[in-house]
Amino acid sequence: KNEVEQSPQNLTAQEGEFITINCSYSVGISALHWLQQHPGGGIVSLFMLSSGKKKHGRLIATINIQEKHSSLHITASHPRDSAVYICAVSSTSGSRLTFGEGTQLTVNP
Amino acid sequence: DTEVTQTPKHLVMGMTNKKSLKCEQHMGHRAMYWYKQKAKKPPELMFVYSYEKLSINESVPSRFSPECPNSSLLNLHLHALQPEDSALYLCASSPWGSTDTQYFGPGTRLTVL
After folding, report:
1. Residues in chain A closer than 8 A to B40 (CB atoms)
2. How far apart are CA B106 and CA B24, in angstroms?
3. Strands in A1-74 per DSSP E
4. CA–CA dist A37, B63 (Å, integer)
5. What three-state secondary structure class fits B9?
6. How close is the nearest chain A Cα to the Cα of B97, in Å?
7. Of B41, B98, B104, the CB nearest to A90
8. Tens digits of residue pLDDT in A5-47
9. Considering only CA atoms, which of A77, A57, A73 is closest in space to residue A15?
10. A44 close contact with B: CB closer than 8 A
């Protein structure tokens, strides 16, 4: 079992829909990161969380430390949100990120 | 300046060639990373430099040789690569370590013939 599990693997939505991507982890963490990767390669860090909730524009990220679970929400989705969303954790013991397998999101107009 | 730059964007090389990938950041970050990413997979960590010293080598074959000439620059020297080494090579930096936000470069798409 991977230390970081994401669901769903693939997600197709219509423009305007509310989207949720989930991430569960099995190790102690110091921080959880949500990353976005568009076709062509570049990775952008969206959020770094150690507790609670963060919001940036239409994106909201939450984390429940007790349940070892985080969610990334996108409100009023748009085709430009189409990308791979990756959850990654910084463990308390290590000095590296452990990545989930990613969620491929496609938003159709 | 809040970006990480990588050159070249694309590289095609034969198995006997020697080439280098370059990564640069001017954010004053003390940690720099090399990742390898295969299609439809998450990045795999290769090397971490902390304060210009190699702190993590994820058992990477010696045909990959990292170098950190100064705090802003990270190189990856390539020699005698195999076709299975074809991938996207990503560089990243962070202020102190992996618990910080990492800033990724756009990557170098490497094809080994």
Report:
1. 102
2. 11
3. 4-7, 10-14, 19-25, 29-37, 43-49, 52-56, 59-64, 69-74
4. 28
5. coil
6. 7
7. B98
8. 999 999 999 999 999 999 999 989 999 999 999 987 789 999 9
9. A77
10. yes
